[in-house]
Amino acid sequence: MDHRIETVRKNYEERMTEFVSVLNREDCLPGSKIMDEWRFHLELTLKKYGWVAVYKPLRNNKQLPSTLDYANELVMVEKVEFHNFEAYVIGADQCETQTTSSETSSTVTNKMFCVPLEDLYPCIKQPDSDVDGIEISNIIDQFRFFRVNLWLPWDEEDDNEDWRMSALEPRMQLLYDMDQGLVSCEVFERVKRLWRQAWDIHDTLQSLEVAIDDDGSPVPLEVQAHEEEGLVIKIMQLHHRLDCIKHELERLQNPLIRNLMVREKQRMMQRSDRVEAPWSRLVWGGGSSQDLASLVSDASLVAGSDQRLKMYPLLPLALEEASTGDFIFLAPGKYSVTGSGGLECGGTINGLGMQKAIVSGCEAGDVMFSISCKIVIADETEMGNGGDDCSSAKGFSFTIANVTLEAYKMEICLLLNAGFVLLDNCVIDGGGSHDKDDSVGAIVRAGAKLLARNCTFTGFTSAIIAYENSQVELVNCQIKNCDIGVQIYKGAELSMKQCTLSECSSQGIYYKWCSHVPADKDKLLAEEVLNTLPGVSVSESNFQGVPLAMQVSRNEDDTSIMNLDNCM
């Protein structure tokens, strides 16, 4: 018989739509009524018998020894007991040998056993062609997801609050934030531990309360040394602990509190002065030992052979624990981020391997990376060497190397507030289509310095904006598929060497003398005039696919700008 089962992975919106459909009462729906809604939904949608599933017990310690013999085996569902959310099943091999209903009855009487409904994973292909295995799988998956990830022991005791508002939405958001690595390691582990403890305490309480209610007062194994009075005290202590867990989880479900915890930790790390060597933090999803050895070897070439190494499965976790000056190394793969984390004041993000690591903003927002480094002055020869060697990166406050940044949902990919920033062998990709009116690859504010080597900027409204008293140096870079290539304000410094600008629909370079200049005062200038602009140096560069002239905002009394017609 075919053992294949349906594997379901749904996003936040899909899950919420399903649960709203199941719990669709218009009036207040307290926790005490939630299970009634599920019973009603399952009775309407789930076939009561005659379908095959793989039995995978979620909590082996709760199963009877006889049922564990069928773990990960095919079973036939003989009857679904909706009241208790259980199913009576028999081994699928028994069904194949049964030929008459009388034989079935006698066999089932001896070998039928009861399992939780969420422990069943229906097969895609069912013996009965009238049974839709995928539909049954989807129904069971909805209930399993709810029972395992959203339901807690105290929910059924609440008769006042609407469970959908007080529990469903915040728990769903917390769950998907954890899945995407958007919460701290401490919060992630704490939530898992509290969730597990809550159900363990609930199970213990049930056994103790049953024991104390019996006339003979039988004592369960875990408290067999206690008298009845000891049982009462134990129950009171467990109820108190369960109440503490409830209140702590309610706090952790609040995204505002979680974000405040993360920000406070980042501020504490930024305030503290480094007294120890930087950490190398390797983000790696797993693989062979040879792959790991190769990654560590590559990382040691950048950070040094005496590096202190720590590994993470997700980039946000590494960024959160990082401190100023740390190295974060990315194995080839795709990652998502919500900010600079502990590296906002300086550090290194370096992709390892032949293929670039891809880092994307996982949710729509204003800024993907905000960088406010303490200025670390690099040697002037390093600023302009234009070489491929990244060893000079150690002189910079913040370095991103061998990485593709996908800012499809972001208004600003890189916001450089202060300090030196080096981009080496990177792709800064805006996607070419944005919900926002204006998208920028990199904004360089006053006092900040950007050096980009062997990089590509593509798909933005403006690839780079350099404000007054900022510095931008581009070496062997490409800017393409943007509305404006480089927008530079008077007082900024721009150096371009061996660069290519193509497919810029408005201007390749847009020099602005002040922030607000009417469009009718814009003039065009020829390529050879660029080097006459204050702070601008362009050499060995090619403007493919764009006019050999740049739009210039200027004061009318300035005579250093020539009209395009006079330069041709």
Describe the secondary-structure layout:
Layout: H1 12-22, H2 34-45, E1 51-55, H3 65-68, E2 73-81, E3 86-91, H4 92-97, H5 101-111, E4 113-116, E5 120-122, H6 133-149, H7 163-179, H8 185-213, H9 228-252, H10 255-271, E6 279-283, H11 289-303, E7 308-312, H12 315-321, E8 327-330, E9 334-337, E10 347-351, E11 357-361, E12 365-372, H13 380-383, E13 398-401, E14 403-406, E15 410-424, E16 427-429, E17 440-444, E18 448-453, E19 456-458, E20 462-466, E21 471-475, E22 478-480, E23 484-489, E24 493-497, E25 500-502, E26 507-512, E27 522-526, E28 536-539, E29 542-543, E30 549-553, H14 564-567
Parallel strand pairs: 6-7, 6-8, 8-10, 9-11, 10-13, 11-14, 12-15, 13-15, 14-16, 15-17, 15-18, 16-19, 17-20, 18-21, 19-22, 20-23, 21-24, 22-25, 23-26, 24-28, 25-29, 26-30
Antiparallel strand pairs: 1-2, 1-5, 2-3, 3-4, 27-30
Helix pairs in contact: 8-9
